[in-house]
TrEMBL record:
GO CC entries: cytosol
Keyword annotations: Lyase, Transferase
Listed name of the protein: citrate synthase (unknown stereospecificity)
Enzyme Commission number(s) of this protein: 2.3.3.16
Amino acid sequence: MVTVSDVADWWGNSICRMEPGVVELRGVPVGELIGSTGLVSTIWLLTRGAMPDPRQAALLEAAMVASVDHGPQAPSIAIARMTVTCGVGLNNAMASAVNALGDVHGGAGEQCVELLDEIVARQAAGEDFDAAVAVVVEAWQAKSRYLPGFGHRFHPVDPRRAPLLELVDRAVAAGVVAGQHVRAARAVETLLNQGRTKPVPMNIDGATAVIYAELGFPAPLARGLFVLSRSVGILAHAWEESTQGRRNKGPMPPSILPTYVDSASRPPG
């Protein structure tokens, strides 16, 4: 026989306690957080179970600010703008956009944390640092010619890279973070650029991955944090588009029609 206690235990959690007149987040009454705690610190509290040091929160906030938007050439932003012209609400447009954030568009930060974690773990196990970097990079390149966190299809040098890494360097000097992951990321960047005439610098996904990893966030949470960050830009674009009066906005202006490829001229298969 199922009891009330069985049902209550079914939804047992350590994140939110809610009962009539009570809302606590990780044991802290929400009234104590309102007006005194920033959103980023609250994100940390809910995902990690404790409040961050203010310097940790500042570093996380920098990473999240850097990732809020990259314009409508990003598929998620374009989707948000198109969806909101179809007669749905902002929440539908945001959900449609967030659902496009997969392994290729949105997942590089998570993958880069995994890569950096592998290097740091190998070094911690006693492996030579440079050898660990070479082995991990080779293994990742065997899976894909794109190394997550490095290179950019638009920017010769990602303008968000240097400010973020400067903040990490300051945090290392102040003892806020250990510096192992940023060292690994820079070593990967150096290795990638050996013998190249066109550089492959670290990008926003790599720089934010360094921050997430240095702050101790597991790799899957790196993607979740990116999604939270990019949702800000998604909301802004969806809202702007909703005020412009367009209906059923497609991926191209109506005056431009897609090329029709005759099946007879299409390559077999």
